[in-house]
TrEMBL record, chains A, B:
It holds the Pfam family HxlR. It comes from the Bacteria. Residues 14-113 form the HTH hxlR-type domain. Keywords: DNA-binding, Transcription, Transcription regulation. This is Helix-turn-helix transcriptional regulator. One of its GO terms (molecular function) is DNA binding. PROSITE patterns: HTH_HXLR.
Length: 118, 118
DNA sequence: GCAAGGAGTTACCCGATGGTGAGTACCCCG
DNA sequence: CGGGGTACTCACCATCGGGTAACTCCTTGC
């Protein structure tokens, strides 16, 4: 599992690492980014992120749910199982942080696109 | 190399990932965290972070310098080479983001320490 | 001469992360 | 009945980040 039930003490001298552990992984931020616009099903997420495999998506979702950032809701529409993933209340508190990462990253991308470190 | 010269286009649909790439790695945040309190030499950093090997520290520092977050200054004190690592001006702009990660992480650590997801 | 400290480099190994392809189970549609 | 959709699981691989240990090069001090 990729989750971090209880952050190991070594991290506490660097609390930023705790957050990074929860969010790092090739697709985790992308999943979170996509779910910002509202909940989605497993298949929605697959389609939204071409390249991810079912296995890895499952792993990442499980980790995010286990860490309390996402909530999973299963429902039967007709008789077909539908699973919906969305931010939990706790997960919402992470959004400002993700936004900070996002806007800095966007700025960095622009900067790096042109010239190297002017 | 662990650096991300020009962020690959796939990341741009998730700018947060750009930032995370720069900062993820077992020791990168710890290096940055330590350097927040002022510049330090190679040996200072090794001593400050028991467990890191010279190789990995070199790799991480190289990556952080290549990404423009840190600046390396070499000086000869007497005839001995001293290398000093510190935040670059650009690196400073990342500090608020690291603080956001840090305070959220600290909060998460407290939350996880007691009960699981109350 | 030899240890010790500063600043790395090199070769090699290991385990976690992620990718592939197939298979499962259930249901709906034509 | 076949094809397609939802939601996964399983077995197997490949890559890569990180760890280990040894080795370089240079200078200062006993």
């Amino acid at each position: 599992m990729v989750s971090t039930p209880v952050p190991d003490p070594k991290m506490l001298d660097c609390p930023a690492l705790v957050t990074i552990q929860l969010v790092s992984g090739k697709w985790k931020t992308r999943v979170l980014w996509h779910l910002r616009q509202g909940g989605a099903g497993f298949g929605d997420l697959r389609r939204a992120m071409p390249g991810i495999s079912a296995k890895v998506l499952t792993e990442h979702l499980d980790a995010l749910v286990a860490d309390g950032l996402l909530a999973r809701t299963e429902s039967l529409e007709g008789k077909v199982l539908h699973t919906r993933y969305r931010f939990s209340d706790y997960g919402f508190t992470l959004i400002p942080v993700l936004d900070a990462l996002g806007s800095w990253g966007l700025n960095h991308a622009e900067r790096a696109a042109g010239h190297r470190f002017p």
